[in-house]
Amino acid sequence: MSGGLGVPKLSEVSVGDQIGSTTIHLTRADLVRYADASGDQNPIHQSDEVARSVGLPGVIAHGMLTMGAAVRVVVDWCGDPGAIVDYGTRFTGQVPVDAETGADLEVSAVVGAVDAEAGTVRVDVSATCGGSRVLGRARAVVRLPA
């Protein structure tokens, strides 16, 4: 049922197939590590006081951290991050990260389209936090073996 090493074959994939779901727990320490790695030291990602002063509920996760964490379910399914040839999203909400409890990002993904001629599959990714959508039109195009 796979193209070797767990990689799905294009012929085994159908529109509507659930490819996976996961919960990603984020903590304030994760935000600090991401800020250091990315260079995005915006204080809304580290200081409740600053975040609230600009109308946010408190510290929020970086959008690109959220986007990158969400695509992990696609990488786990296809087995190769290099198989993802396109990925994009719209940010529709924030991921507030509580100092004590952190935040849970709920991610799931389904096959939205199969293009046999191109050898690709479009995967539609859903990401929510606290029951609210945080990513809209999150889509990854994945090249799969025939």
From TrEMBL:
One of its GO terms (biological process) is fatty acid biosynthetic process. It holds the Pfam family MaoC_dehydratas. InterPro entries: Fatty_acid_synthase, HotDog_dom_sf, MaoC-like_dom. Residues 21-125 form the MaoC-like domain. One of its GO terms (molecular function) is fatty acid synthase activity. GO terms for cellular component: fatty acid synthase complex. It comes from the Bacteria. Belongs to the enoyl-CoA hydratase/isomerase family. This is Acyl dehydratase. It comes from Quadrisphaera granulorum.
